[in-house]
Structure formats: structure tokens, C-alpha cells
Amino acid sequence: MDIPIGELSRRTQVKVPTIRYYEQIGLLPEPARTEGQQRRYGSAEVMRLNFIRHARELGFEVEDIRELLALSADPDRPCADADAIARRHLVAVKRRIAQLKALRAELERMVEDCRHGRIGDCRVIEVLADHGQCRRDHTRAEPPRGRMSK
Description:
mainly alpha; two-stranded antiparallel ribbon
């Protein structure tokens, strides 16, 4: 195949600057070039870029993707290492979901406590100004702190 970067972008739904970035950081190999120095790609690059895009959509970090790509180059190798990467990512996703649930609960409480008066008496502004008024530490997924519900 002799695919220019714009066509690679269309086929993989990855923007041209992102393709260039992936080349810079070594996720994509340096492409072949024409005499005019235009990049050219083949089916292997299309597959690799689709793999990268999908992994990014699932939230995998660049270093994990790099590791997964290296593992995929050795199809006879046991999949324990790939499984460990996915499990590690799953733990991080679960932690983030717990954090987002705590954040949602705190925001709901802030909005419910709003007195709809003046900004000087606004519960939203008060809570944002004083993290101690939060019932939960929404910066980490932990159980409620100190104060209980009113």
C-alpha cells in the first residue's frame, strides 16, 4: 500500500497531528517517504494505528500501549503480561468511578443546599471556598470524613 498521511487519518479516524505525535514518541515507526519527503503508510500501519486509537479510547496510557504493542509482536507468548496490564487499568478505572461517584454526591449536596439568595450567601460559593465543608474527600475515593449528613 502507498497511503498518504491524510488517507491514513481518514481510514483510522486519527488526526494528522496525532499521527505525527505517535511517530515522534515511537508508537508508530518512521514511515517510508517519497522523493518529495511525503510520508507513506501501508496496511500494517493502518492496523497498528487502529490498535492505538482503540486502546486510547479505552483509556490506556501511552506506556501501557507501548507495552501491549510489543507483546502483540510475539503472538506465541503467554498473555499473562497483557492480562496484567488490563487488570491494572481496570483497577484504575474502578478507582476513578468511585471518585466520580463521591464527586457527584458532593455536587448534588451543594446544589440541594443552595438557598437561591444572594451570592454572598450562596452555598455553592461557600463550599468551593472551604473544602472542609465537604462531607467527602472527593479528590480520592475514600469513605466520608468527619461530618455526617444534616
